[in-house]
Amino acid sequence: MIITSLLDTDLYKFTMMQVVLHQFPGAQVEYRFKCRNPGVQLAPYVAEIRSEIRSLCSLHFQEDELAYLRSLRFIKSDFVDFLGLFRLNEKYITVTPQPSGEIDITIRGPWLHTILFEIPVLAIVNEVYFRNTQKVPDFPEGRRRLDDKMALLQADGLADLKIADYGTRRRFSRAWHEELLRVLVARLGTGDRRPGAPPGPGQFAGTSNVLYAMKLGVTPLGTMAHEYLQACQALGPRLRDSQVFGFEMWAKEYRGDLGIALSDVYGMSAFLRDFDLYFCKLFDGARHDSGDPFAWGERLLEHYRKNRVDPLTKTLIFSDALTVPRTIELYQQFRGRCQLAFGIGTNLTNDLGYEPLQVVIKMTRCNDQPVAKVSDTPGKGMCDDEKYLAYLRQVFEIPSVP
Hints:
This protein has 17 helices and eleven strands. The protein is of the alpha/beta class. A hairpin with a 5-residue loop joins strand 2 and strand 3 (103-110).
C-alpha cells in the first residue's frame, strides 16, 4: 500500500480545503490528469493504480493526526471535526487506459470531497510506474546526488540559505521520500534550538508534506495552489475580478495569516495589476511558479517599492522546477533585499538518475464552467476549452505565446 495516511499530502490542500468548507461548501469541480513526458506508457499499470486508489479510499484520519492538525494555529476546530468524519470516495475518480498507452484520470464531484485526491494519486502513479520500470532502484546513486546537493548548500557564505521539500507529488517512492527527509534534517539541521533537536546551521526550513512534518518535528509549509484561484473564476462575481475575489476570500478566512499569494495563474503582469497597496500590505509575500524567476523577483521588488512597502519586510518564495544550483543563484541575487524561501520538488525527491515523470492533476471545471491557468511558462497551463482560454487571455490582457 503506497499511501498509508491521509496526512501524506501537501499542507496547502488542508488550508484550501478549510476555505472550501467555510466559504464554498457547495462548489462542484472536475480535475484532469496529464503526463507531460512524451511516449510514457502508463496504461499497463491501470489495474495497479486502481487498486492503490481503492486502498487510499479506505483510509480515515487517526486521532493523533487530527490532534496534530488541531495544533496548527491556522486550522479551526470545526474543520478538524469535519476531517474526523472524512473519507475519500472512489465514486468520484475514474482511471481509464487509452489506446495510445496513456491513461486518463478524471476526478469529478463536490470540491470539498475531492480536493484531497490530487497529491496522493500523483504519488501513486509515480511509485507504481517506477517500481515496475526500475525493479532494482539505484539508491546509492540517489544518496550520492543528495550528498552533492548538501555539499553545495554547505559552501561558505550560504549559511542563511534555507530550502524546503515540495516534492510529494512526484517522488520516486514513499520510502525514498522519508529517507531523504531524515538525511536533510540530520545533516542540514532545522535551526531548532530545543534540547534533542538536530545540530546544524538550520538550512532545512521544512516540508510541504504534513505527515513527515508531524513525524520528523519540522515545519509544515504551504498556503494556496492554482486550483483555488482557478475556482474563483466560477465562484466570484465577475471574471475580471476573480483574482481579487480569491485574495479577499483568503483574507476573510485567515485574517492576515498564511499570507503568501500565488502570482502566476494569469501571469505576472495581471498579478501586479491586482496586487495593489492593500494586498501588498496585507500579504506577507508571493510565490513564483512559472516564467523567469530572476525577472519575476525584480518586478515584484520594484512593485513593492512603488507601493511604498519595504521589500525587506516581505518574502519571495521560489518553487518552479528548482535545482540546488539555481536556488543558490537566486539566493545570491536577492539576498539582503527581501526575505527568501525556496521549495525544491522533483529534483529533491526523484533524482536517482532516471527521467522523472512530469505528471499533473489540474482543475478544469468548477460549477460546470471551464476554468484555467494561463502560465508564464508555455506548456504549464491546462484547459479543455480553447474558446474559454482565449476569452481569459482577453479579459486579463495576457498576450498569446508565439
